[in-house]
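[audit] Reproducing an earlier prediction to check determinism. Same input, same settings, fresh worker. If the tokens differ from the archived copy the diff job will pick it up downstream; this log only records the rerun itself.
[audit] input (424 residues):
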Amino acid sequence: MVKNTKQDSVKEPVSQGAETDTSQPNKIRASTPYDFEAKNLTAYGGLFPIGTMLEKLGFQQLVEETLTVKRVTRVMSMYQFLLSIILTIYVGFSRLNHIQFVQREPMLTGILHVTSLPPQCTIWRFLASLRIHIAAQVLKVQRLMRQRVWEAAHVNLKVVTLDTDTTVHTLFGRQMGGRKSYNPKNRGKKSYQPILTFLAETREYIAGELRNGDRPSGKQIAQHLDEVEAHLPKQVRSVYLRTDSGLYCWDTVQACEAKDWWFILSARKSTRLLEQLEAAKWSKSSKTDSDGECEFWYQPEGWAKAYRFVALRYLKKPKVKDESDPEQYQLFDTPQYSYRVFVTNIEEPVWWLEWFYRQRGGAENLIKEANNDAGLSELLSTGDVGVQPELLADAVQSRGRRQYHNHAAHQVVDGATEIPVCGR
């Protein structure tokens, strides 16, 4: 008996695509199944509560009334273009080229009311047509949407904590605005230094600015804090600000005093400040991991008055010496300390201030998530200056607010009274 080995052993390939195009757009009806059992948004099914929430909050009307886009689009409307970009960022895509993977995804096309998403070149032509004034309008939409979400979900935070930080984006090429400045990972290379502010309680992105690679000046910091104040929801009554030493200057303190904000800033250690640390009266710190703590009033050069400075010191660990290295004698054999110094107007003990400032690490985690997950590095590399601010805003807040918006969508859809938010 003769057998056809090729016919018996080779498996037939599985069909990996739709044989025919969808004749009509997919529609989401009341019978569409959905649930909220998962902690985070799923890759596709989680878009349904987000789309429902945006519809109930009047997102489309707000976008069409606020954005002044005069370009006449054919494939999709202006609102559909923006909504497709936002939803794909929520899904986890960081490049426009990734849209091809969900070009015919039923849930996504059903929310957008189209048969399929346009190719990458069409979306880029739409983004290239946007003028630079659209950036401020998009940020206005973001501010109004935040206010609507808070009101719909009954978020009534009277006291909030703001974390302001700068991040370094290394440039490889001759991009405009690149500067050789602070860049610990790629020393000597040009970079951008965006400045970003987050709301610690809800992990929301409040405001930001794509800057050149130079250290921000005092005037730029004050302008950024004014923008942050304008974007805060109207329920907020008291604000605590935490920043690193990159924003340590008199303009920052002066802006906080003018706004009646509480602040704690990491101080840069100058020669005069080190002299104050050496002359200060140190005591044991039982509630921190430091080897000593102190506090004193000090007026830095150029400041209008003295402020309260608190400091922690840590004994440096001795370096392991190699037996082959020659012995070097020191002129003064004294213990060496490393210091952490803060300037603040908060009337709390040193251990509480150290604990409170340590919570600021959440902002750095949000920036890392934006770089690694939401594609902040790719978005900053685009050539269109007018599009960068709103893409920056979407990228930074999309991953940080993903779980928060999932709960918010649950409450808005089901009509519940409040959502759980973490306390300070």
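[audit] rerun output stored. Observation attached for the diff report: The longest helix spans residues 134-152.
[audit] end
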